[in-house]
Amino acid sequence: MIAAKRRRDGSITATPTVSQSNDARASSFVQSSPLRHYQRTKHPQQRPTKRVGLHLPGNNPGSSAPSFYVRPGYRHSSLSSVAASAVDVARENEIEGEQEEDSDPDEVIMCVDMRERGTVGCCYYESSTGSLHLVEDIQCGGLEMIGTLKLHIQPTVVILSMRVDETVERYFDPDGRSRGSANGDSDQFSLPYVLEIRPSQEFSYDAGKNKLINLRLFADGSPEISFITPADNDPYDDYGEGIGAGYTGRQGQLLRLSASIDIESRLTIGCAGALLTYVTRRKAVKYLPNDVNPGNSFRISTIEMFSLKGIMFVNADTLASLQILQSESNPNTHSQGPTNASSGSKEGLSVYGLFHHFARTPQGKYLLRQYFLRPSLDLNVINQRLETASVFLRPDNNGPMNGIVKSLGQIKNMRTVMIHLRKGISNGLSRGGGIKSGIWSSLRSFAFHTLQIRDALAEVNGMESLKIGTKILQKLDPHGLARIGRNVSGIVDFVASADMHRTVVKSGVSAELDNMKRTYDGIEDLLNLTSQEIAATIPAIFSLDLNVIFFPQIGFLISIPLNPDTGRGDWEGGEIQDQHWDRIFSTATRVYYKDFRMRELDETLGDMYAVICDKEIEIIHELGERVLEQEAMLNQASDICGELDSLLALAQGARSYKFSRPRITRNNVIQIKGGRHALQELTVPAYVPNDTFLVGGPGPPDPTEFQEVQAGNDEATREVFQKTIDSDALEGPSMLIMTGPNYSGKSVYLKQVALIVYMAHVGCFVPADRAIVGLTDKILTRIATRETVSRSQSAFMIDLQQVALAMTLTTHRSLVIIDEFGKGTDSSDGAGLACGVFEHFLGLGIDRPKVLGATHFHEIIENGFLQPRPSLTYGYMEVRLDREAKDLEDQVTYLYNFRAGRSNTSYGSCCATLNGVDATIVDRANYLLDISAKGEDLVIACAKISEKEENELKDAEEIARLFLIQDFRSLFTSVNGSQEARNILAKLI
Hints:
about 40% helix; 25 strands; alpha/beta; six-stranded mixed beta sheet; single chain
C-alpha cells in the first residue's frame, strides 16, 4: 500500500502504511503482493497464460482418459486362432490341426506392482511348465527395474494394479490402448502382450499368502505332523485325513512355503495373489463347472524364487544380518510421520551409511543406494566402478576431485526441477521455499557447475580410461548448458525476486515492460499531488491526517481516521453528488473511501500492477518453454552427474576408511589377506585382521557362455576363457567351520567375509590388504533371528526357515553363512540338525557352495559325524589361557587371531564372568563341568541331602531292617504276652 500523508507543517510525503483490515491486505511500495493474489482477466492488454502439459515424447496427450475412468477388469484374447488358420492352410493335416486348436497356447503371465519410493514386486507364471516364479521385493527399483524384469520375462499377459503409478501404466501402454487410443478404438492387441488392469484389492498381501497356501503343493509325502497354536481358528485350516495329512493344514503349509520362497516380500506375494486370481478367472471363463480339463489347464506345479541376470540375490535377512542398510527413526516422536517418506528416519550404522554422506546430489544418493541394494554380477560394470575409484584416488588427482565434489554440492536433480517447471511452480524446491532454491536459481546453478565439472574432468589424469569421463565429454552439451544459463541469468532478476517473493524480470528485456514499471514507480509522486488536491477541498483540521493509498486489488482510496463515537469517518465529502465519498471498507481505526478522482485513477492506472505481473508471466513462460525444449538434455546431464557423484562417493569412502581394491575373477574362490569388518573396526580401538581361503565347487559347464566366446573372433579372449575354465578346478576347502570360545570373534569373522564379498560386487573397495573374490550369485545367511509377534513361529522355527531357504536356493557360486544353527532346541536335536545341514552342503559335489559356519556342538566333530575330507576345514579364534590367575576373568585373554584347526572348549564360564554373572553360579557351573569331564553321573553328584533328611533316612533304614528279620508268625502268636513284640510294633507305628 502506498500512502501520501500531509504533515502539520503543510508538506506532503509518501509513506508506506499497513492496513489492518481482514478483507484486503495492503501492499507496500517496496514489496508488492505475490503474483498469486492477482487474477486479472478484464484488461485488454492481458493475454491468457499458456498451459504446458506433461507427456512423454511420441505420446498423444489426448489419448489418456480421465483419472476417474473405470478400467475394464478383464480382457481375454483367443490365441488359438493362429492354429485354426494353420488348419485352413494345411488341409492334409486336419486332425493334428484340430488337436493344436484345442490345446492351450504357451503363455507367460507377468504381474507387477510398484509402491512408495519405487519398491517393485513381481512374479510370473509359465503355462508350459506350470511354474510360478517370484522375485524378492526390489527397493528403489523404479521403472528401470520394471523394464529389466519385462525384458527378462518376455510376458504375453501383463497384470497391473489400479493403484499403480501412472508412469508404470504409461510404460506398458505408451499409446493408451488400454484406455482408448487417439483414434477412438480400444484395441490393445497392437501391443506384444495383453494388458490387464485389476482392482488393488486383488493385490492384498494376506489374500495372496492365503492363495499360495491353498495350492497344497506340499501335502503329498509330508510327515504326519500338525502344528496347532492357541486361538488358531483360521477358516483356511483343514488338516485332512490319512497319510500325509499333517502338512495339509494352513500352519504347516505356511512353514513349508517359507522354506521355498521369501514370504516377507509383501508386494511380490500380493502380485502372486492377483496372478492366481487371474488364472482362476480364466479357468471359469473357458470351462464349464463339471469339466475335467480345468485341472490340467493353468496348473501350478512348482513355486520358486528367481533373480535377475547380472544381479546378486540377497534377501531381507541378509541385508539385516550384515547391516547393509539400517534406518534409524527420529528420536523426536513429533517428527515421525505415518509413511516412509515422512517418518523422519535416517541411515544409521550400516555399510551404505559409510558412503551415502559423501554423495552430494539427490540423484547420486539414490543411485548409490541402488548399488548397495543390487550388487552386480557383470565384471565390466564392477571393474569400471573400481577403475573409476582408482583413478580419482591417485594423489595427482586430489585437486580436480575436490573441485568436482564441491561443484556437485550445488547441483539439484533436474528431473524434479522439470516437473515443477511443467506444473508452473517457480518457488523454492526446499522446505523453506524462496527464490534462492527455486527452479530458475537451480537451472542457473546447474548449468554453471556442470560446465565447471566438465572442465575439471579434463584435468584428471587417466580420465581417458573411464567410461564416466567419456560419457560426460560426449553426451554433455556445453553450448546448450551455457545458453540456458545465459538466458536465465539475463531474464530473471534474482535480487528483486527475493524482495518481492515472486519471479521478476530484469530491466532491458522488454521495452514495454520497462515503460510500465517506470509509470508504476511514478505513482508515489501522483499520490502526493492527489493528496494535496484533496486536502485543499476539506477543512484543514481533517486534512492533517488524510492519506491517499493504492491497493493493487482494490485501487486508489482516501483514508481518514475513524470517529469512535459515530462509527464513521471524520469527513465523508461534501453534500454535492460529485464531491460525495463512497465508503468502501473500514478497519478498527480508519475508514477508506472513493470519490470521482479515485475512480478516474482506477480507470487509468488501477490495473497497472496486474498488467506488469501479467507481462512478466508471459516473459517467464516463454523462457520456460525454451528450457523445456532442452528437457531431455538436462535430464541426461543430471543423470550423468548423479552417476559421477555416486562413483566419487565410493572413492571418497575408500580413501576415508583405508579400503583397498579387490580383484574380481570368474574363478569360484574367496582369498582374503588381512580382512577386516567395515563396521566393527569403527567401534573398537584396534582391530585384528584375518585371512580367508575358500574354493567352491566347479559346477556344471555353462554352454551359453562357452558358445558366446567361441562365436567371437578374438583369439586372445578365447584363450583367456579357456584358462579360466581350467582354473575353476582350484583345490581348496569349500566349507570352513569355526569352533572355539564365546566372545572370541567368530561371528564377526563370518560377517566380515560376507561383507567383503558383498562390497566387492557393489564395485567398492573392501576392508582388506588384498582380496580375490570370485563371482558370487547369492549370499544366504542364518545369522540373526528376526522375531516378531506378528508371526506365530518360535525363534528356532524361524532359524529353520532361513536354513531351508538357503538349501533350496544355493548354487555352486553361492556363499552361505551359518552362525550357531541348532542352538534353539534340545542339544542332541540341534547337533544332529547342524551336522545334517553341513553334510548336505558338503555332499553336493561339483555344486557345493562356499560355506562359513560356526558351532559349539563339538560332539559332531569328536564323534566323527563329519568325516574329514579335502573340502572341509576347521578354524578357531586364538585365546591365551592362564590357569594360575586368581580371577576367572583374567584366565582367558582373547587375541582375535584366526588359526586353522579345532578348539574343544567354549570357555562359557569365563564369558559369563566377563558379562557380570554371579561368581557362585560360575563356580557351580565349573564344578559340574569337571564332574562331567571325569565321566561321573551328574544326577548322582547333584543328589545332596540335608543332615535332618540323612537322620530320617537312617531311622527308616533301621526300621526296614528290623521288619525284614522278624518272624511274624511267632510274633502274632505271642503278641499278648511278649514285651518284645510290643516294642517292635511301636517302632513300626
